[in-house]
Amino acid sequence: MDLAGLAKLLHPEGWALLQALPPYDERLALPLAERLQREGLDPGLVAAALTQSRLRAKARAKLGDFADGMLFTPAGLEQATRLEVAAHHARRFRDAGCTHVADLTCGLGADALAFAGVGLRVVATDVDETTAALATVNLRAFPEVEVRHGDGLALDLVAEGVDGVWADPARRTGTGRRVFDPQAYAPPLDAVLAARATVPALGLKLGPGIAHRDLPVDAEAQWVSVDGDVVEVGLWFGPLAPEGPGRTALVLQAGGVAHTLRADPDGEDAAPPVGPVGAYLYEPDGAVIRAGLVGTVAHRVRGRLVDPTIAYVTADALTPDPLVTAYRVLDDLPFGLKRLRTYLRERGVGRLTIKKRGTAVVPETLRRQLDLRGGAEGTIVLTRVAGQQRVLVVEPV
Q1: Which of 12, 13, 166, 282 is 20 to 30 A from 375 (CA-CA)?
Q2: Residue 221 in contact with residue 233, Cβ under 8 Å?
Q3: Contacts for 66-69 with beta carbons within 8 Å, 24 or more apart?
Q4: Is the dihedral of CA 364, 367, 371, 373 positive or negative?
Q5: Which of 269, 296, 271, 298 has the alpha carbon at shortest distance from 282?
Q6: Is 368 helix (H, G, I), strand (E, B) or coil?
Q7: Domain map of the chain by residue range?
Q8: What 3 state SS string does 25-89 have?
Q9: Is the pTM of the predicted complex or chain greater than 0.85?
Q10: Neighbouring-strand partners of residue 250
Q11: How far apart are CA 143 and CA 126, in angstroms?
Q12: Sequential pLDDT tens for the chain (397 residues)
């Protein structure tokens, strides 16, 4: 969206049209656009309103009911923080005693919204003029937030009275390709890290795929998952990391339930035991895996790895833990297409869940090759056990 399109939407006629549109339905979008144009509405306005309606529908997964009063760009929505995650960011600043946060890269304003929601004052900046304008619209109900168009790194943090700094550097090129080099972020990671020399309470949101070697040694690096989907790694410094540097995982589940895991202070995560498949198989949450804490989880469930290079944990007894998905092991077979097809047909398995780790097998290709028949359901895990390709037949606990 450009500023001209934004101006049309913010005109009373445009805003009224946007708010009056029915819930977005891709199948009805074209007929609806044609009808509105026949009624005399400007085609550009209609297109802008329907685009926003589509983006709002998509944004509800991240921002809930707030999405219905906000404006978006596709790229901005892609990087916007989920509301439940932004709430955890905000509580970090509040609990550290911060009162005035500088959001150096505010984007569409999701994090600034959460900061204001816990009573923090916010100065929010973005280098893109249209994005800053959209953030102004999105944060209009929060007088605690001042949105500015400009380079957040140019803020005089001391003169602004800021006691906390937040940044979410852009990690895609103009063509949408992901950027993996932290110094190619916009702004570069080192440029943002320099802010902690002035304001020690610095927090950053980065992509969860960043290499451990690229993480500052003085940061708490926390990988975050939402309902099993790993969405970010947060870097926290100074008073925002009261337990000090280290790797942690935050697992957010349905209903707002949150679980946190920190690297074992006794080093149990460094060299977890490896052994044969037992009665139960555990699949650690993705945030735990990205944080390198599989060994810590293995220690918690009194288990061992099935292979030193694979993030599956096995144990002889069940130990429920919210940071893993547990399966009962029904059978352990060497991998072979013919053998597996016969095994499943003998049991009438027609609907099969295929999980994999440490194998090049493509689940959808395998499913076609198995030619499943029958009314029973089953779950298999394709993985390596002691370096050998195996098929574990399991059922969820």
Answers
A1: 282
A2: yes
A3: 66/113, 69/138, 69/141
A4: negative
A5: 298
A6: helix
A7: 3-59, 77-262, 280-396
A8: CHHHHHHHHHHHHHCCCCHHHHHHHHHHHHHHHHHHHHHHHHHHHCCCCHHHHHHCCCHHHHHHH
A9: yes
A10: 224, 260
A11: 18
A12: 677 778 889 899 999 999 999 999 999 999 999 999 999 999 999 999 999 999 999 999 999 999 999 999 999 999 999 999 999 999 999 999 999 999 999 999 999 999 999 999 999 999 999 999 999 999 999 999 999 999 999 999 999 999 999 999 998 877 778 888 999 999 999 999 999 999 999 999 999 999 999 999 999 999 999 999 999 999 999 999 999 999 999 999 988 899 999 986 665 456 789 999 999 999 999 999 999 999 999 999 999 999 999 999 999 999 999 999 999 999 999 999 999 999 999 999 999 999 999 999 999 999 999 999 999 999 999 999 988 999 999 999 9
The C-alpha R_g of the chain, in whole angstroms, comes to 25
Return the closest-CA partner of residue 124 out of 101, 157, 143, 140. 101
Residue 76, exposed/middle/buried by CB under 10 A (0-12, 13-18, 19+)?
Answer: buried
> Is 132 strand, coil or helix?
helix
77-262 is a CATH 3.40.50.300 domain = no
Inter-CA distances, 352 with 79, 141, 277, 283, Å: 34, 49, 21, 18
> Euclidean distance between the first and final Cα of the chain, in Å?
48
Distance CA 136, CA 139 (A): 5
How far apart, in whole angstroms, are the C-alpha atoms of residue 333 and residue 161? 64
Residues 16, 9: Cα–Cα separation, whole Å? 9
Residue type, 204: L
Q: Which helix (H) or strand (E) holds 257?
A: strand 257-262
